[in-house]
Amino acid sequence: MSIVIYTDGACSGNPGPGGWAWAIAPTGKAKGSGGEPNTTNQRMELLAVINALRTYSDAAGPIEIVSDSTYVVHCFRDKWWMGWQRRGWKNSQRQPVANRDLWEPLIELVTSRDDVSFTWVKAHDGDPMNELVDQLAVNASLSVR
Fold first, then answer.
1. From CA 64, how far away is CA 25, in angstroms rounded?
2. Which of the following CATH numbers is that of domain 3-143: 1.10.390.10, 3.90.1200.10, 3.30.420.10, 1.10.10.10?
3. Do residues 66 and 4 lie in contact, with contact meaning Cβ atoms separated by under 8 Å?
4. Taking the C-alpha atoms of 131, 137, 138 and 144 in order, what is their torsion angle to the nearest 10 degrees?
5. Which residues are catalytic?
6. Are the C-beta atoms of residues 14 and 72 closer than 8 Å to each other?
7. What 3-state class would DSSP assign to 2?
8. pLDDT tens-digit series, residues 93-114
9. How many CB atoms lie within 10 A of CB 82?
10. Burial zone of 67 (CB within 10 Å; 0-12 exposed, 13-18 middle, 19+ buried)
C-alpha cells in the first residue's frame, strides 16, 4: 500500500518568516510542521518534503509526494538533479544551484529508495489536503515571528 504525503511551504516576504508542513492523505491526522525566522518559500517547500521523507524513511511500500511546488516536482519529474550533479552543482545557466544544502539531502532521501514519486497539485484550488498543509505551513511561519 502506498503512502500519499502532501507537502507545502509558506513565507511572509521572500525572504521572511517561513513555515513548512506535511500531512498524510486522506485524513491528515499524521502531520508535521516547523518554521524559520528568515528564509524563502523555496527553502520551506524543500524542508517540507525532507521532513516528510525522513519521518517515513523506513516505511514499506511506495511514497507519493503531492506538492504545489513546481520547483520540487519538476526537479524529480524532469531529473534536473542529474544535470546539476553532472555539471558540478551548476544549473543550466552555469550558475550555482540555489538551495544546494537542502537539495543534496533531499536527493539522497529520494534516491535511497526506488519508490518515491512526485505529483503536482494546483495551489488554492480546493484540494482539502493541499489546503490543510498550506494552513499548517502558514501557522508555522506565524509562530517564528
1. 10
2. 3.30.420.10
3. yes
4. 170
5. 8-9, 45, 68, 124, 134
6. no
7. coil
8. 999 999 999 999 999 999 999 9
9. 12
10. buried
